[in-house]
Amino acid sequence: MMVARALRPPSTLLLLLLLCVLLALLSPTRAIYCDEDDCYDLLGVSQTANASEIKKAYYKLSLKYHPDKNPDPESRKLFVKVANAYEILKDEATREQYDYAIAHPEEVFYNAARYYHAYYGHKTDPRLVLVGLLFVVSAFQYLNQWSRYNQAISMVKKTPAYKNRLRALELERSGGVVNKKKNNKQMDKKVEEELSNELELQIHGSEKPSVWKLIGVQILLLPYTLGKISFWRLCWFWRYQIKKAPYSWNDACYLTQTSLKLPIDAWWNIDETVKNNLVHKHLWKKDNMERYQAEIRKESKRRR
């Protein structure tokens, strides 16, 4: 076992690490900027030269070595080096990085990382990236919701209950008279499609997609939503804590629903008589809730 482990080839990560160390040892860090040359020497300026002097030196050399001015192949190569040196030194950020690399040649990996981040890292506005990401996520979310909704509708349309509702709607539209003669199946499908559009199918867990429920839209409307919630809480505090007003029907329903920990859809699907009975129990009060829970447990034991 130990021999087998010893004979294993080194991992890819280790090989890459060794390669980086080897490259770092073979050439100085500043070589990634202007190869083996010094950027300042290529432009013929000192390291203390200001931006105006660097620009003037570049224009002077470009007139001398530009391929349009000088057809010599070696001149073209030199012009490429001069242009690269100017691109590095004309920008304050990259010049500062280059100066740091000259002063600290031992910090190989740090200098290399700064260089590649500056030249190959994305320079897009992070805000635009965030907006684009939200748009892509919202698009996938919308398509996924439509797929789930269509799949659920397709399954519901195969059930006998749906076909019975469709048949009842057809009888209602025809005044109770059904045409027994079917000309062709295409017409039947067309009539079925028209009738199915009139049936509102509400499927829990696969509701019809809405733009307002997309994560991107909700994030964009977050300030409005937070403001609305804050205003609602302020009105609630003023009405029921300061003025001691009795709860309105809707607010009493909200308190009852939250006390029972029911989803909003489940609450509104409860029979109106049962709903009225629950609201009048004032279950948002601790004693009433404990009494109600004791009644439920007693009823459950009796049914057993």
From TrEMBL:
GO biological process, one term: protein folding
GO cellular component: endoplasmic reticulum membrane
SUPFAM superfamilies in alphabetical order: Chaperone J-domain (SSF46565)
Signal peptide (UniProt feature, chain positions): 1-31
Record carries keyword Transmembrane helix: yes
Record bears the keyword Transcription: no
SMART domains on file: DnaJ
Cellular compartments annotated: Endoplasmic reticulum membrane
Record-linked PROSITE patterns: DNAJ_1 (PS00636), DNAJ_2 (PS50076)
Membrane-protein topology: Multi-pass membrane protein
Keyword terms, alphabetized: Chaperone, Endoplasmic reticulum, Glycoprotein, Membrane, Signal, Transmembrane, Transmembrane helix
CDD domains found in the cross-reference section: DnaJ
Biological role stated in the UniProt entry: May play a role in protein folding in the endoplasmic reticulum.
Protein name (database record): J domain-containing protein
Source organism of the structure: Dioscorea zingiberensis
